[in-house]
Amino acid sequence: MEKPSDSDLLETCTPGGKRVLQFDATKISNDILRILMAKGFTVEEMELVFSLTRYRVTGTLTFPKLEKI
């Protein structure tokens, strides 16, 4: 998958408004995982955080399928 150009990033709109999105998704994902694991979050809580992060970036809201207790 090719990296988007700077002009593509300038045209990117998120639910929070128009902004330049310049980030390394792998680094951000790893940083979020480290924080969540250090705080003792469950897998379900981590999936919810990633769903909200995905919504913030893409505008697509999808919730994880949680197991019934």
From TrEMBL:
What species is given as this protein's source?
bioreactor metagenome
What's the protein called, per UniProt? Uncharacterized protein
